[in-house]
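Quick one, T. Sequence first:
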Amino acid sequence: MNPFVYCLNTSTIRPTPLLDKIRIAGQAGYTAIEPWNDEITEYIEHGGSMAELKKAVAGAGLRVVSVIALHGWVTAEGPAYAQALEECRRRMAQAAELESPYIVASPPRQVVDVARAGNRFGELLGLADELGVVPSMEFLGFVDGVNTLATALAIARSTGDRRATVVADVFHMIRGGGSVDDLLMLKGPELACFHINDVPAAPDPRTQTDADRVMVGEGIADLPRVIANLRSIDYHGPISLELFNRELWTQDPLEVVSRGLERIRALVEG
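C-alpha cells:
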C-alpha cells in the first residue's frame, strides 16, 4: 500500500500559467498540488478569483496540501514586524481559502537566534487558530542560519505546540551539509510535506543553487534511502516534486511532470 500523496510543487513548471499547472498536474496523475502565494496573487490581480481557482483544483481531481511561503517573520522589529505579520495573515488566508492544511514558513538568509526564531514561530502558530492553516518550519541549505533539518526541528519543537511541523527537502538536506539520514531524527507527524528532487555531482553540492536541482533519478542523491527513511519514521504525507531547473522550464510541462511522477512511483511502488 502506498502511504504517500503524490504532489506537484508548481515551481517545477514555473513559466506555465497557474490554471494550466493545475490542469496538467491532474492530467499527469497527481492527487495534490503545492502552489506559491506569489502566483496566486498574480492570478487574482489579473482578474482571476479564489472561487475559480478552487473550482479548477477540484475539477482536476486535486487538493492543495501546502502553499509557499511566509517571509519576514523572524527578524523584523516594531512597525516592520507588524507589517510582516499582516502579510503573513494575507498569505495564510489565501491558503485557508484553498483549504490547504499547511503553509511554509521560510527562514531569513542571515544567522538567527534559535530561541528568538522559536518564539516568533510560536506566534505564527497562534495565527492558525484565527486563520485555519498551520505554518510549517522550512530550512534552506544555502542560507547562513536555518540551513539544516536539525535547526528547523529545534525551532519547531521549542514552541511546545503539538501542531509544530517542518518541511524537508532532498536538495536542502545535502546543500546544508547533512544527509538524507537526517530524516531519521523526525517522527512522521512532525513532517508536513517532503520535497523530492535530485542533486547533480557537479558543481560541489555544498555550493549549488536552486537552479542546479535535477530531475528525480538523474543525480547522486540516494533516493531509495530517502523513501526507506520516510517509511521508517511512519510518514504518510505529500511527496512533492519541487524543481527550479531552467532547462526543464523550456520543455513541455506535461512531459516534465509526467516523467517526474513516473520516477517517484518507481521509487515508492517498485
